[in-house]
Structure formats: C-alpha cells, structure tokens
Amino acid sequence: MDEFEDVLKKLNKYDRTNVFSKIWFCWMCPYFVKGWKKEVDEDDIYRHRRKHGSELLGNKLDAAWKCEIKNNKKPSLLRVLVKLFLGEVCLIYILICIAESLRMLQPMLMSRLLSYYDNNATEGNKNEAYMYAVLIVSVLFISVPCLHFFQMNVLQVGLKLRIACCALIYRKALKLNKAALGEVTIGQMINLLSNDVSRFDSCLQELHHLWVGPLETVIVMYLTYYYMGYSALAGPLFLLCFVPFQSYLGKLISKFRLRIALRTDQRVRLMNEVITGIQVIKMYTWEAAFAKAVDLARGKEMKSIRSASYIRAINVSCALILNRVAIYLCILAYVLTGNVLTSSYVYTMTTYFRLLNSVSMFFPRAVTTAFEVYVSIKRIQNFLLYEEIEPRAVEAPKITDDEKSCIGIYLKDVSVRWRNDSSDYTLENITIEAVPRRLTVIVGSVGSGKTTLLHVILRELYPVEGTANIVGAVSYASQEPWLFGASVRQNILFGQKFNKAKYDEVIRVCALERDFELLSHGDHTLIGERGVSLSGGQRARINLARAVYKVSLLQRHQQWYFFDI
To answer: Residue ranges of the domains in the chain?
Structure first.
C-alpha cells in the first residue's frame, strides 16, 4: 500500500488539475513550497506525463512511418510528423492568435489614454481615462497567461517530437543490416541523437512567426494608415524591402548547417577510431600525426561554424537596426507632411513597430529555424531509409521429418550480396548441407566469403537467390571478441542461469583456468568496456566460453555452435 501511495504522489499533477490551475500554473505551487523548505532531490520530482512516454510516442511514430513507407514510393518523415502532430499544434496556435490580437489592442487603448493627458486634446474626460486604464489591465491579464500557456505547451509538443524521433532512431539502429552498418558510423548516429533532434525542442516556438509575422504586418500597416495617414506606411514598406534579403540569409544558414553536420560526423568518426585504437597509437608513437588529423577535422568544422555565425550575426543585426530606422522614417514622414508630433502619436507608432519585431527580428529567425529543422528531418529520414534485418519469406526445401532430424543446415543455390545496388555477388550458387553432432569446417583465402556465409546462416544477410533452411538454435562466437563492462562470469553467462558443473567444464575446455588464477578476483574480476583490462587472448577465450556455455532448452539436441576464427 505504501508503494502505491508513493507512486500516486509522484504522478504528474498536471493531468489531475483544473483549467484555471493549468493556465496560471497553480499546480506547481506545492513543488515550489517544498523547494523553499528543503533542497529538492530526485525523489521529489514528478513523473512524466503518460502521453510523453518514449514507448507510446515511439510506437505511434513507428506505426505511422511504416504506413508511410508502405503507401508512398518516396516516403517523407516531414509528412509523417505533420500528420501526427498538426492537430495538436493548431490547437495550441489558437492561444498565440488570441495573445497577438490582444497585443494589437494595447497601442490603441494606450493612445486613447494618453490623449487625456495631451495638452492639445479637445475631448475626453476622467471616466473615459478610467475605462481605458481598466481595459489595458484586462488585456494584459488575459494575454500574458495565454502567451505563457502557449509557450509551455508548444515546448511540450517539441519535446514529444524529439522523444518520438529518438525512439525511432534507436529502434532503427538495432535493426540495421550488415550492409547498412558498413555505411553508417556510430558518430553519425550520436550526432542524430544529440544535434539533429535537439532542433525540435524550440522550433515550434519560432515557426509560428512564419505566418504571424506577415499577418501582423498587414494588420499593423492598416491600423497605422487608419490613424496616421500615408506617412505611417514608410516604415513597414522599408521593412518589407528587407524580407527577401533576410530570407536568403536564412537559406544560406541552412546550407552551412548541413555542411556543419557532415563535418561533425567526420570528426566524431575520426575520434571514435582514435579512441578505439589508442593502444596502437601509443605503442607506435603516432600521437602527433593523429592529433594533427583531429585538429584538421576540427578546423574544417569550426570554419563552417564560424561562417554560419557571421551570417547569423548579420541577420540579427539587421533585425535590431531596421526596426529603429523604420520608426525614424515614419516620424520623419509625419513631420514633413505638415503634422505636429504628439506624445500619443509617438507612443502609438513606437508600440506598433515593437509588434513588427516578428518581421524584423523573429521572422528571419523563424526562416533560419525552418531550414535547419528541414535539414535535420532529411538527415533523420535518410537514416531511417537504410536497409533493415527483417524476416523475409524464402522458399524452404521440402524436407521430411526424418530428414530434418539429420539435416540441420541446408543451403541450395544461395547467392548474396552486401549492397542491393551492386550487380556483383559476394557469394554465388552456394549449396551446403550440415548435419548435427558433426564438425564442419569452412576454409578459404582472405576475403573469400567465409564470414559472409556465416551471416547468411545467422539470418543477418538474406539470400538474393536460392533457398535457405536452418533447423536448431544458434550460438555464435564472432571473429572480433565482444565484451561488456561487467565481471568475467557475467560476460560468460550472458543472462543464462549459473550451473557450476557445466560452468567448470566450459572453463576447462576453453583454457580459462590459468587466466582466472592470474586475475586478481578470479572470474569475479570486473573488466572495462570492450575488455580493455584484458589481453587479446583472454578476450578471445571469454568470447568463446560465452558461445559454448549457451544452450537452447527447447532444442538442446539441435544446438549449433559457430566460431568465426
């Protein structure tokens, strides 16, 4: 019961609160009070909302992506994301429409209030001044919560986009076939999960300026013309002249963004190779040469980052300067047309041009963000289109039950290739029969296809032609020893139950007894990632022992052991 109460306490209170509390963020008050009384730790943090769970979002995007691939010759990840999240985004954008509409009322109300204090004013009384003051406060009272509620919800949608894409990338990485793994590097996948998906976090906060900015410009131009005549159009027209230039800068930044991503992939790939082979580098004293190569890769990346930063600085500077120049042009035109400046005119003009920041500042940023997000989506889409390991129906030979007890592996006229776009076969017209309880050795020269044949038997590489039938469970020891950060015993058991008699026999036949004597804590010795604390021979023997220890409970009489040496 106590555990249930603890879980209930940690449930996110957002889903259990009323609309007023959500808009005014009252549901967070108990959390702030707790933080005021004591230091907040991990146990005090609420659980995430169920709709923000990685499994749920990943399943939704995965199903939509599979449907997109099935129904379209040219699948588009952007189209899938729009279908999934457009409705939710449109509902949230209603809030920003309300907030922006109320913001446009403020200059008019403030102008009427200032006219009461204007010496040249000929109308207005105290009651009207009170009325406009109350209206101004009311507008702020409504628009500010709408704006903050919009910002919170739009960040949540961006977070859901990021979580869904991360889940899909992770699932895809686990299903890549051998051909795809030859093209994709770990550095590229890390870059996708760190840099590219991070664009979703705040993109929706800025993308609405793509349509709010032009719409606000038209409305503000009409209002300024209505109240102040033709002179008020000088500033907005001046701003509109620079919109194409700023859009071009945004497109230019997106090109540099793609170049930066590619060069970052190259640098991460190089660093991964250096870290992997650091022992060899130190042994041959190649530090200077590899440090120079890393510096060169980083220099190319920084050159692209520097160029993109210069363009972004020009874009931001234009946004800051153009707004003030536009105000000056409006005031100058107003005076040159024979009008007299008043405080209400100057304030109204200044306030309206603050609203036009969505054109002079936020619109270029929105264009830049849109191009950057598009580039990131295309990179993720290209990764998702790599070939996967998927069970495919192959024509199995007709074998009787009696024959199945003898024949465990049957390949007939099998032809395979690593890349579908290649016309050359790695293996061609291979026919093999292997029976249980008999040693079968495949020999050949370097590059003749021995490992490729094992991948066919392991169903990691599918035949382009021919038939393949494998009866029985498989235990595989790869050519490259693979270990994980745990004890030696855990690496051998690999999740299997510990059987002392069987374990001791495996240790004996794999010649690990002497190694255990040399290790400080025997088979309980912790080894580092990839077995860096062990010698090459020790890693190979542990890798072999893991394969030998594995046994299939359902098909113990048809257990196959494959050793790639």
So the answer is: 54-384, 401-471, 488-563
